[in-house]
Specification:
This protein is about 70% helix and about 0% strand. It contains 17 helices and no strands. The longest helix is centred in the C-terminal third of the chain and has 27 residues.
């Protein structure tokens, strides 16, 4: 964004003109987006009441082109510590119509800037009880920011789960899509507790796709807890299968390719997670051999 736009925005502060009036005077070309963002940034710092009025006029006025409104909402997504006043304006977009809902989503569903204010108002918890489309979008957002707000998200999802088997199944899928840059004990413990609850659909149809996604996520978490999660998955497999072993090619819980890679990428997880399953499988082989001798 150019120095000219910065100067233009500063000069605009001393005018009695509104941004809406400025936009109505000319074609709303793409370069106006930069000017609008610069003006809003300056107003937010110097005259918040005027800033709030400008924001409201820009996103609700029908004569403002969509690309300008989108630029405003994308800028709002980047502000530090959104206020209750900004939330009150943005919240009016949600559910008005498809275009307004898209603007709302562009404002909040990227990064962590809006997480704290939305969480403080129980907005996130309420959305998890909405329709599948909105719930899936919230889950996607939480998976992207889990490493930045792990403790808050763990408490939020644990309360939502509340021991419900169907919700546990949904969380198993969610864990596989986590974007974690560093291990977090709270999220891992929630994952372990969910897997230990043995959700009814977790291993249906062998559960290979969801389990594979979860295990690839664990590759980045070489830890004792990661191993406990893997062990819990094997325990669930043994509870579901009276015969066979989870390492056999036809019944394998984990792909052979993954079993080759895991010891290299996460040796602690591998040793902690597979030891019990290996011993159980060996005991089964011995028992079957003794049974065959009789």
């Amino acid at each position: 964004e150019s120095f000219f736009d910065h100067l233009y925005a500063r000069a605009f502060l001393f005018k009695e003109e509104t941004i809406l009036h400025m936009l109505r005077q000319t074609e709303q070309h793409l370069f106006r987006r930069t000017q609008v963002r610069q003006i809003l940034d300056a107003l937010r710092q110097s005259d918040f009441d005027r800033y709030a009025a400008e924001i409201s006029a820009l996103i609700f006025e029908s004569q403002v082109r969509f690309h300008i409104k989108l630029a405003v909402c994308q800028w709002l997504n980047s502000v530090d510590d959104p206020t209750d006043a900004e939330y009150a304006i943005v919240a009016k977009l949600d559910g008005c119509d498809d275009a307004s809902t898209r603007l709302f989503q562009h404002t909040i569903f990227s990064g962590t800037h809006w997480f704290d204010v939305l969480h403080s108002k129980n907005w996130i918890a309420n959305q998890l009880d909405k329709d599948d489309e909105r719930r899936d979008m919230v889950f996607w957002w939480l998976s992207a920011i889990a490493s930045e707000r792990p403790d808050e998200i763990e408490r939020l999802l644990r309360a939502w789960w509340n021991g419900d088997p169907a919700r546990a199944d949904r969380l198993v899928t969610w864990f596989g899509f986590l974007n974690r840059t560093a291990p977090n004990l709270a999220i891992l413990q929630l994952c372990l507790d969910v897997v230990r609850s043995n959700p009814p659909q977790m291993l249906q149809d062998d559960g290979r796709n969801r389990v594979s996604m979860l295990l690839h996520s664990l590759e980045r978490e070489d830890s004792e807890l990661g191993g406990e999660i893997l062990e819990a998955l094997f325990d669930a497999w043994f509870a579901l299968h009276r015969e066979g072993m989870p390492f056999e090619r036809d019944d394998s819980l984990i792909s052979h390719h993954f079993m080759d890679d895991l010891p290299k990428k996460a040796p602690l997880t591998f040793l902690r997670g597979t030891t019990k399953a290996f011993l159980t499988s060996v005991e089964q082989v011995i028992a079957e051999g003794e049974s065959g001798m009789h």
